[in-house]
Specification:
Layout: H1 12-34, H2 37-54, H3 61-86, H4 99-109, H5 113-123, H6 129-136, H7 140-158
Helix pairs in contact: 1-2, 1-3, 1-5, 2-3, 3-6, 4-7, 5-6, 5-7, 6-7
């Protein structure tokens, strides 16, 4: 957790409670989108720091944090694509998953960042479409469409009937 002092109006105990309860899930959300644990931890920390800086301006911290994580992950993915486009050599991944995990990860990696985030929030965090829509800055109908298209693509990649 950050050592930055809490601004006036932000209850430190409430901050600590939200941090303890939601930090791991936010890291997992970021990891699914970025594919990097280090980047995921940084993104989650940055979201909490932003909440800390805004103090009592944030009325509902958990949806704010989800939106902040999704937004930062989108920026991170864009930067990495640009870096890869200009890089001459792509480094090998440090971790090698087993065959089944690799197939599922490859199927998820083919999805857009928004689709991956929607799938994660729906099936891992078990959030309703309205909360996913708030995190992704879209309508619930768009979430339904994202999930439908993502699941269709995953089924095709995994050859699931």
């Amino acid at each position: 957790m950050t050592d930055e002092p809490a601004p006036e109006g932000l209850d430190q105990e409430a901050f600590r409670a939200v941090y303890a309860a939601h930090y791991p899930a936010l890291v997992r959300l970021a990891y699914l989108t970025t594919g990097s644990l280090a980047a995921a931890e940084d993104v989650a920390q940055e979201a909490f720091i932003e909440w800390l800086r805004r103090g009592d301006q944030v009325r509902e911290p958990v949806p704010f944090l989800r939106r902040a994580v999704v937004s930062r992950c989108t920026s991170w993915v864009r930067r990495r694509r640009l870096e890869r486009r200009h890089a001459s050599v792509t480094p090998e991944p440090v971790w090698r998953p087993d065959g089944d995990t690799e197939v599922v990860r490859a199927a998820l990696h083919k999805l857009t960042a928004r689709q991956r985030a929607a799938v994660f929030m729906r099936f891992y965090l078990d959030l309703p479409e309205a909360q996913i829509a708030a995190a992704l800055h879209c309508r619930p109908g768009t979430v339904k469409s994202l999930l439908h298209r993502a699941l269709t693509a995953i089924k095709e990649d995994l050859d699931v009937a």
